[in-house]
Amino acid sequence: MTTNERISIPNVAEPADPRAASQCIRRGDLLFISGQIALDHGELVGPNDPLEQCRQCLRHIESYVTAAGGTLDDVVSLDIFLTDIRYRPAAGQARAEFFNDPGPSGTVVGGVALAFEGLLVEMSARAVLS
Known about the structure:
This protein has helices at 50-67, 88-98; strands at residues 5-6, 24-27, 30-36, 39-40, 43-44, 75-82, 105-110, 121-128. By secondary structure, it is an alpha+beta fold. Helix 1 runs parallel beside helix 2 (88-98). The mean pLDDT is 92.
């Protein structure tokens, strides 16, 4: 029987309650990465800068995939949540910086409220590890 394995990285905090949602779960060759935000050791990265916040989210995603033994080429789906749809070009630029062509499939949603003031973007991902 395959079970869930929690993947942790040092610069992204896990919830104190182990029953709460994990930041990253591996099940077999599948990797599920919860919504990542632009924090680094509790500090907001790129205040008022959607491009830098997108880059920080992707750095977290890359760290999780690497910790699980994969690369960004293993990411098959990426969902991007923006507080303002006008940040979509910044999200596209960051995707192009991190992913080879063809990049992962995905969804972009604009006009959302995020968990903390100052956040402009959140990203979640799924990967199939080879």
